[in-house]
Amino acid sequence: MIRNDVAITPELVKEHGLKPDEYERFVNLIGREPTITELGIVSAMWNEHCSYKSSRIHLRGLPTKAPWVIQGPGENAGVIDIGDGLACIFKMESHNHPSFIEPYQGAATGVGGILRDVFTMGARPIAALNFLRFGEPDHPKTPHLVSGVVAGIGGYGNSFGVPTVGGSFGFDKRYNGNILVNAMAVGLARTDEIWYAKATGVGNPIVYLGSKTGRDGIHGATMASAEFDDASEEKRPTVQVGDPFAEKLLLEACLELMKSGAVIAIQDMGAAGLTSSAVEMGAKGNLGIELDLDKVPCREEGMTAYEMMLSESQERMLMVLKPGMEKEAQAIFHKWGLDFAVIGKTTDTLRFVIKHQGEVKADLPIKELGDEAPLYDRPWVESPKQPVIAPDSVKAPMSEAEALLKLVGSPDQCSKRWVWEQYDHLILGNTVQTPGGDAAIVRVEDGPKGLALTTDVTPRYCEADPFEGGKQAVAEAWRNITAVGGLPLAITDNLNFASPERPESMGQFVGCLKGIGEACRVLDFPVVSGNVSLYNETNGQGILPTPAIGGVGLVDDVTVNASVAFKREGEAIILIGATQGWLGQSIYLRDVCGREEGAPPPVDLATEKRNGDFVRQLIRSGQVTTVHDLSDGGIALALAEMAMAGGVGAEITAFPEGFPLHAFLFGEDQARYLIAVDEDVAADILYEAGAVGIPAVTLGLTGGDALILPGQQAISVKQLKAAHEAWLPNYMTGKA
Amino acid sequence: MKSAVIVFPGSNREGDVLRALKSAGSQAEKVWHAETELPQGTDLVVLPGGFSYGDYLRCGAIAGRATIMDAVRAHAARGGLVLGICNGFQILCESGLLPGILMRNANLKFICHRQFLRVERNDTAFTKAYAKHQAIDVCVAHGEGNYTADEETLKRLEGEGLVAFRYADAQGHITQDANRNGSMNSIAGIYSTKLNVLGMMPHPENLIEDLVGGTDGRGLFESLVSSFPRAA
User: Fold this and answer.
1) How many other CB atoms are there within 10 angstroms of residue A570's CB atom?
2) Beta-carbon contacts of residue A511 (< 8 Å; ≥ 6 apart)
3) How far apart are CA A225 and CA A220, in angstroms?
4) Is B160 in CB contact (< 8 Å) with chain A?
5) What's the whole-model pTM score?
6) What residues contact A100, with CB distance under 8 A and at least 6 apart?
């Protein structure tokens, strides 16, 4: 008989983040009042972060399959086949709430957690990326958060030894009380050496590996499933502390152990620690799990069963070992100076049994903990449609050259060098394209293959029209991979939204997901892993809907690729794709005209695919090595970035008539690219494009040391660079 | 030529330097820090970059006292070649093989970027493939690369020509802007008195291919390999 020494009051239930009806459901499930340990376990399993209770029914609509997908969502990370017996394993995950409370450790452990997800499956991490959003620059907290988050990401990844090769970074007042810190990891494994969480066999030893368990991070996943208020900073003790050194040792020890053939199943201890990892292994394998907590290596004395089951101490793993292999496994872990303890066994009872100091502290049905979690079809309302803004209704408040200069030095469009120079992006010696371009490229082992990697979403589009915004996020990731010569293969999505209990924000979630699903289907770009982060709001103010997309593409031969930099003088600059001068929700409208309004640019996925396939073919056939996709800031900003990256100017002489110059230069129509090619080749490309009905037009020539827009004062590349590079360092040292 | 790359818990650029050594024509193998002896016939010992022991104490302080370091010191005392890169340089300073210390970067941040170095002399086993005062394009990736020594040591290093590389601009000029970590006299690397031990913060091993940024780092590994006529 299980002894209950703490009375479970309604207050206690509430503190555990369970609604009264959810608690009721649990009591009915187990047929008695739970122990405090059991209450802790169920609160960990049934919170939003672990159970996906508000999002599950909508996630089902996402396409997750393709011939090259080995493992879709539901494991530690997604797995795709990249040929030659190799698999790419990747995932993106949020650490938003902890990073707001304690930016360095919050971000660091976000990186640690995602790296662990990848190497748990047997992959050696070869690249890391991130997606970051902060509050407005003028908010007093912003510089501190930027500084801490960037240092934390660098601090963890640099020490662990993975190159951080790309990311996205921006500001908006809507993130004032809720920053976004999403970390993505990409690893490589052999297709026949991939490890899963599913336990098999009755009576097999369950082994605890890695760092010791402390009191850090208790209820981290519950915190991640609640809105913030003014007292949120009091939650600092629930933020975990990262130890990248221990993680590096854990990586080497795990990979060595996997090679030894001793491992049956493996699961990292992430959110909800020991609870979630053990339940997952048992439930997936249709087995019960029995744990003896007296055997758990603890960092602190006197830890209770409740604390051990909910601790989110970092750098820990749970494994099911082949019986009889314990000695061999232990030797490997001790060589790396890590803890190794047999703490339980698999059973055929389908119960999750926790023993501590001779007493049963929990005895729960293991499958129901996952399967019977509440599932909500929350009410939602569609976001109101925004009016289309006619190009000629937007008056230009300054010249196009002045506007461009303003934009290149603005908080969102300025160089992020200050950020990525704090990340080791060169370690491993395979970084073919470094941060700052459309997508990063990392070589796979000794080549010739490579992976093209990017993280994208345009949150202001998602808010104005969730469906189009969701489509655009996927299309932009697809386009960025295409622009370096990669074939887009699959995505991981990190869905950051406000409270699902408000129909408006639930409507944003539903709309974005429909858009993402639609784009993934048409572009053949399935979702193989992801993470949902809801309740991103403070005192009732939600974030912009931000479904960050992490895209992975394959480059067949890394020596054949394209980058944004103008490489030579006298090359023809060709615009691929149709331009209407779409200014609604554009950066020009927001940052030059001070208007945040209108419908975002629509995304025609068939056109997107046709134009992108054309550009990729130009790169792969070796005809083109200079390509930039068009997104924020349109043609003008892309030209400036190409000129700055290559140190070569350009003169734009041709532009179509019929709409204002500022709409042509700054419009954000989709499915477009700029390329620069030898003039001789240009004619062929224009002909080829014309033959398949793709709009293509020569805008001007590269050359000189300035960018000259039609009828505008020349802006020297030097002047552009000065404005572009200055803002962020000045801001961070209090000068901007 | 035979190279031994020492692996400490927390080393992370051992693979990068193995690749550079092998591509220059050296045999190269990893040696675990807990070993007591170097492999028979080791010509060059490399202490690679990384965060040995997490850099939780002073960088390199624990690794400098690892079991294998006695064998490394003996190898150096016999005139054997030792190369310490980044964390390896820090370990050499902590183990007494090189003078001075690496402090936190002047801006107190980790910095990773491409960096030109001026080759101060080209008559050593490490640099003979370069021209004297050639500017080479490599990269740095460190949080504590700010070389600091007492006045007397600095005077001796300069007087005896023991500065191996200085941070420079693309033309090889020594400028304050090029010295981003704040090192004294823009020092990026130094030799031991007998010129057989080199410690340097930058990473030549990451610049060995055009595809991945350039080939200016190759010269260092080619110099070493060419120092041994019995190259494998």
Assistant:
1) 11
2) A382, A383, A465, A466, A467, A469, A470
3) 9
4) no
5) 0.96
6) A106, A145, A177, A178, A179, A228, A232
DSSP B54: G
Mean pLDDT of chain A: 95
CB A13 within 8 A of CB A20: yes
**Candidates B14, B59, B75, B86; catalytic one:** B86
Structure confidence at residue A588 as a pLDDT band (50, 70, 90):
very high
List CB contacts (< 8 A) between A450 and chain B: none
Helix or strand (DSSP H, E) at A326 = helix A326-335
Considering the four listed CATH numbers 3.30.2130.10, 3.60.15.10, 3.40.1180.10, 3.90.650.10, the one that applies to the domain covering A562-736 is 3.90.650.10
How confident is the model over A168-177, as pLDDT tens digits?
Answer: 999 999 999 9
Q: Is B86 a catalytic residue?
A: yes
Domain presence at residue B232? no
Residue extent(s) of CATH 3.90.650.10 domains in chain A: 562-736
Question: pLDDT digit string (tens) for A60-104?
Answer: 999 999 999 999 999 999 999 999 999 999 999 999 999 999 999
CATH of the domain at B37: 3.40.50.880
What's the pLDDT score for residue A3? 78
Higher-pLDDT residue of A659, A622: A622
Q: What residue has token string 């399967």?
A: A371
pLDDT at residue A235, rounded to an integer:
61
In chain A, which residues touch B (CB < 8 A)? 151, 154-155, 158-161, 243-246, 248-249, 336-337, 420-432, 434, 443, 447, 558-559
pLDDT in tens, A126-152: 999 999 999 999 999 999 999 999 999
Structure-token pair, residue A32: 């008695």
In chain A, the residue whose alpha carbon lies closest to the alpha carbon of B14 is A428
Residue A334 a catalytic site member: no
